[in-house]
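Page 47, continued from p. 46.
Same chain as before, 569 aa.
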Amino acid sequence: MITKKILSWSAALLLLVVAACSAPKTTMGKQKGVLAKHGMVVSAKEEASKIGLAILKKGGNAFDAMIATELALAVAYPNAGNIGGGGFMVYRLANGEKGALDYREKAPGKAHRDMYLDAQGNVIQDKSTLGALAVGVPGTIDGLFEVHKKFGSLPIAELFQPAIDLARNGVVITPLQADFYMGKNLAEIKKANNYKTPFDNGWKAGERFKYEQLAQTLERIRDNGRAEFYEGETAKRIVDYVQELGGILTREDLKNYHSQWRTPVTFNYKNYTISSMPLPSSGGLCIAQILKSVEPYKIGQYPHNGEQYVQLLVEAERRAYADRAYYLGDPDFVKVPTETLLSEKYLKDRMSSFTWEKASKSSEVGHGQIPGYESDETTHYSIVDSKGNAVAVTTTLNTNYGSKVYVKDGGFFLNNQMDDFSIKPGVPNSYGLVGSEKNAIAPGKRMLSSMSPTIVEENGKLRMVIGTPGGSTIITSVLQCMLNVFEYGMTMQESVSKPRFHHQWLPDDVMFEPKGFDPAVIGKLRAKGYLPKEENFVIIGRVDAILVDKDGTLEGGADPRGDDVAEGF
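Result:
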């Protein structure tokens, strides 16, 4: 199953790497993205970025724009944008106050630890990824209403209407959407549903595709509020269809869902203060572990994407992902030694076995020892408004089009987030990530994530808003883009366009974007015992970020690997 996914990315990567070489704009010898003084929205689709910006222009704040952008992505980018999935938001108010919202999906009440195993205890292929049993309780709509209740300034109807109009008028399909997203998933969409969906004939690049059923669903939610999705007609249609297909989601599961406000993981790296998503996302903890592990080294003196730079990051990543696999899970269900995992002594001890002479072996690098501890396809957008409020939001259905279940008479896909649990501890999920009992399935539990919406301050001022899709590569993508700016003085656009690499402990491979790295560097790493992979590679993120220059100018960096667009004014 994993091999199939890796192969599915390979054809598109050649196109994406070529795209990554294009320069959006050059200013004084530097590649820069879209520049603006008052507000900026960077997302995976032009339509969504424009809608978010229009909300800012009419006086809405970053949170108003977040709601409108999220809903627009559900229309324009249905492989990942959603109302049938969930996500995470990290925010910073103009006064410096920071927080996070967890609207991650939950396991249904009838879920159980071994629900994807056969009688012999082996994982049943595709059961956790395709079809109704893969669906977790969606959190997106609840999250949007929570955001509006706490921070919204414009009426909710005004924030829903642009997405309704977009769905009704239609979206022009891009070549990437037609060939890569829909083309590669059409057979599974047909397999997951018991009726003729609107996608049965696939997509053609340049056609305008309309979503009338989704428009009607959004109108009902606009008029009836959160309760429409979780208790009303829409809830009934979701549950009836999921159960018709053999799923276990119930009306009670929807009714009882609530997103949760959390405190971000906040830490310092040199002059920067970084705030990222806490558990049940592993993103903030892993980024903190990696950055704190490499901070003692003079990174900026190593050639960018050179031998020493790659080697150091890989070794820090190896140790962080090993800890991720063993220690991390939903903090409402398991005890996680967060303070120790981020302590200077612990991280120093973890890196003590690192040597420049040869690669560590993942088989010999397990989780760190903590005395007294007891065991117990995604999209991102970044927004800054004229007042200085900032939001970083990563939202997902998990894999492209999630479970592939397209709600009958609802017009939207449901997630397959259940695969983010350790469906069998020690067995890799769709992204090759291994987990422990901490991330085992339990009713009402949130599955572990890699999503890493992140906000950076420098000397107390807003400096960067960043995040990306990419499954297990989210953490390493965000990390490298931050270091590109921190250590190498890149603009935001230069940073997101640069080739990236990835390591996640298991499998013991170092993945490189094809044709993006010096063959001599890869050869030297191979000679030290590393296992480089360039072919059949999974995509390494599509980073959408905003950099705040010293004079307050906003620079939007939209990843050229996708259809991503920055819009500002």
